[in-house]
Amino acid sequence: MANGYSIFVGLVVIVALCLAAWFFSPKGENQVLWRSSLILTFVSCYLMWAITFLAQLHPLIEPRRSDLRKEFLNH
């Protein structure tokens, strides 16, 4: 079910959330703090998800079974 388009769909969702945080943050003296905190949180969560997702989508090390006899291993 996983494909490369998930990264772009997630990016669109994060951009929408960042825009919502920008426009709907509470007005007042802490508005910049709210904006910065929410946008930084959204971007950090997206980066962590994207790195984990891509690491599982294209692993660097190919898994191998160690419980098979040598006759059945394909080298």
TrEMBL record:
Top-level taxon: Eukaryota
Membrane topology according to the record: Multi-pass membrane protein
Predominant location category: membrane
Keyword RNA-binding listed: no
InterPro entries reported for this sequence: ATPase_V0-cplx_e1/e2_su (IPR008389)
One GO BP: vacuolar acidification
Subcellular location: Endomembrane system
The keyword Transmembrane helix appears for this protein: yes
Protein name: ATPase, V0 complex, subunit E1/e2
Organism: Schizothecium vesticola
